[in-house]
Amino acid sequence: MGSIGEDRGPVRRGPVASGRDLVLAIGLAGTCVGGLALFFKTAEAAGNRGSGVPAALLVAFAALGALAVGLALVRRGAAPARGRQALRTAVAAPVPEVPDIGPGALDHTAVDPDGFEHTVAALCARDGCSPVEVVGGAGDLGADVIATTVDGRRVVLQCKQYAEDHRVGSQDLQRFGGTCFTVHEADVAVLVTTSSITAPAAEYAATCGIVCVDGEGLAAWTDQLAPPPWEALPVDPV
Asked: Which of 95, 100, 117, 171 has a CA that sits 20 to 30 A from residue 133's CA?
């Protein structure tokens, strides 16, 4: 989940574009004044000869046509600025909300599965990760929380709030293992559960490089009796 990026305000046109519009406006005004002067002169001559009215009308239409074309060019010059403003608004990067890291926010025993994701996010934020995003939901492809560590590693966490008699099995790990690195581009993949993990699941996780945090490990992490799970893996040398 994210929030809308910072509003940069209206786009201002540069001095070159503004000066070009001013020159164009002055030129249009001169064209219209000259056309009208020629119109009245021609009309006056037509009054004497009785044959210049059609010519005078043609001059007037020409002046109006020049004005219409000029206005269209001015509007066309302003359109890209509006387009750039709309594009900047559309591609503004979302700014993640900072999770609450107060004592209540870390209590995973008093929340539902959705709330459990937020308590895990709060643990990540408490231990220095920024940004931290809760992304779980329909179509999350196994990622519930995504965090960035102080040293820049991308941590992808899957959260399983299970009862004590509901153990995390191999299928849970295999689904997560199929997306955490290839889809979510994790540097560290972590499965966190309130329950325990079967031996085959733990073996699969070790093979794939997924860090598993069971109920006991979660309690130790929450009480700061154990380091954050991403510290279980060494940092690759640059």
From this structure: 171
